[in-house]
Design a protein that fits this description.
By secondary structure, the protein is mainly beta. The chain has strands at residues 7-15, 21-23, 34-39, 54-61, 64-68, 86-88, 97-102, 121-123, 133-136, 138-143, 150-151, 154-155, 162-164, 167-169. It contains no helices and 14 strands. The protein has a six-stranded antiparallel β-barrel with strand order 1-2-5-4-3-10. A four-stranded antiparallel sheet has the order 6-9-7-8, with no helix packed on it. The two termini are 15 Å apart.
């Protein structure tokens, strides 16, 4: 594909009891922007990672938003509340996405982090050692410049698509 949409990568730290995803910032998000999630799955939250397209339902405030399953619905998804616990360095699972909570004696740079700094988000390459902790996070990839698809000049009904790995998803 010769076009790449403008997107935001937002760290999602939890899902609160009001079906809201809690993140670092909602700046730049608008209703109906396509969202794809990567990173760690929040067990019980009903949000899947991978090539599943969700849409921003509502930007609640500067750090919370809701999602919906189709662009044309006005009903947000019902999500189970989830706040990940801080995992010890030795419990970190390779391939999962984490945010450093406490450094302790752990060298997080040996397991995928760019630095040993509280708040750094990284994808683990191995379990660690030492007394440091990290919590799982999801990454919301919000496409702020969506692709609109038309057939013979007519917009397709759910015309807000997403791009993932050079593939069009709906």
């Amino acid at each position: 594909m010769g076009w790449t949409p403008t997107s935001l990568s937002v760290v999602v730290t939890s899902v609160n009891g009001s079906n809201q995803l809690v993140c670092t910032s909602t700046s730049g998000m608008t209703e109906n922007d396509p969202v794809l999630f990567t990173g760690s799955v929040f067990t019980g939250s009903e949000v899947a990672v991978g090539n599943i397209v969700y849409y921003v339902d509502q930007v609640v405030d500067g750090t919370k938003f809701t999602i919906k399953s189709t662009r044309s619905t006005n009903t947000p998804l019902t999500l189970g509340a989830f706040t990940p616990s801080a995992d010890s360095a030795s419990s970190i699972v390779p391939g999962q996405t984490y945010k450093i909570v406490s450094v302790g004696s752990t060298d997080f740079t040996l397991i995928g982090a760019s630095s040993n700094t509280v708040g750094v988000v990284f994808t683990a390459t191995a379990a660690g050692t030492g007394s440091g902790t990290a919590s799982k996070v999801m990454i919301a990839n919000v496409q702020t410049d969506p692709l609109y698809v038309s057939v013979n000049g007519t917009l397709v009904a759910d015309n807000n698509y997403a791009i993932a790995n050079n593939n069009v998803l709906s």
